[in-house]
């Protein structure tokens, strides 16, 4: 193995549209073979994400690609546990002087990056039980599912020496809509956005989807939102009141039916994508699955 060749290729799997596309591309052979995919479970993902993860796990295992699930604990429970150190989420804050602020986003680092990096160190041969020190010269190539419409999220910063980041979707020039069409052409029509149930970064559209289609998760988010403002919440460290919705109103009464200007722009921008999707649908009806029939695995219809 050359000094520039990684010891392992690992996908950071969020189970959303982009990372699912990378996983399945690797399974099909359109991208280099992966050694592992790692899913960091916050314990508070939507049911649809867990269901989807179960499905892709079956497909990955058939291709001898292990999907490893790691966890630091349950983010929701840890946030509300009295006397326990917690990782802040980016909730919206109204201070006592009526100024507005936003909480630090520690949840991604503590509940996603930290457990993933620990598992990578373990896979690279770090010494148990803490798996802190990777043997000299060993490193992993970590695939991250940023697409070209998220290129501003790409950073050249290398926080640890044993991981080299790679962005295959950007290398391929694919955006999120490209990924959705790619998945749809292979029968994956119900891939949800990966985010915690009570993520303050949800837009009104996501909140409406929870309210209208996932009533149990909607109630869960409302209860959590209210709990943030109970006496002694956040161990009394928060100066002001916290809210999941940017309106600084309880989620139960927040104006989520208002379509924001950003959402209108998204809707308008999706018109051409919708036309392309319709053309793809007609082509599939006429020509069948573009991958054809293989005795080694039929990819028509719903994945199994």
Describe, in plain words, how this protein is organized in 3D.
The chain is an alpha/beta fold. It has a single domain, classed as 3-Layer(aba) Sandwich (Rossmann fold). α2 links the parallel β2 and β3. It is globular. The strands form two sheets. It has a five-stranded parallel β-sheet with strand order 3-2-1-6-7. A three-stranded antiparallel β-sheet has the order 5-4-8, with no helix packed on it.
Give the low-confidence spans.
Answer: 280-304
Task: Write down the domain tally.
Answer: 1
| Helix fraction by DSSP (H/I, runs of at least 4) | 25-40%
Query: How many individual helices?
Result: 9
Note the gap between the termini. 36 Å
Structural class: alpha/beta
- How would you sum up the major sheet? 5 strands, parallel
Instruction: Tell me the series of helices and strands, N- to C-terminal.
Output: EHEHEHEEHEEHHHHEH
Shape: globular
Neighbour order of strands in the largest sheet: 3-2-1-6-7
CATH class: Alpha Beta
